[in-house]
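Much of what follows relies on a compact textual record of a protein's fold. Each token is a code from a learned vocabulary of local backbone shapes. The record below shows the convention in full.
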Amino acid sequence: MDTQLLQINVKEIRNIYFVGRNYIEHVEELHSQRPEHPLIFNKPVATIAHDYKIPYPAHSTLLHFEGEMVFVLAQDSGMAKDSEMLVGSGIDFTARDVQNIAKEKGLPWFEAKSFRGSTAISNRFFKCRVADFKHLSIQTTVNGKIRQKGSYPQKLFTLADILTHLKRVVDIVDGDLLFTGTPSGVGEVKRGDIVEVTLLFKNEIKTKLTCEVE
């Protein structure tokens, strides 16, 4: 067993934060502007998917997947090169049609992001040194076909950038989760589709998240 792989207690998660538009190619595919600072939003813990089954939201007809690296935070989360953090894979499911309407009207994205099962996380997390984040990457497949690839160095904002911005606004609690943005390639999923997000370290698989849309 890999001693660098650990499980987290989902029941102890208090907050889940997300960073939008953190890969330039994803910004471009959304026809959005490059952000000047990390764009952070959150979702309730009640959105975490159980048994990796994703119920198709009744209020949407255009469900999108967004594969991401997910970090476990702590009150004393530091970015010293020798410090370690837990990182896994996750999916931020989005009701894109609902989000597009909200954008047009200048309304919040709650119904587009915070529905049942819209947040999925891997059952194991990899313990990684901050100095080695540069070797992290993710890959998303839908029904076995590669749809997304992205590495940590490609992010517009590093974890240090994001934490600095986040701590200006809220106090971090031990066990909080941080989704750090999705690469380009997001797209539609339908009932019966299998979505997998794999976290790799030096191109070696460390965690894999597999979900089925119902």
The mean pLDDT is 96.
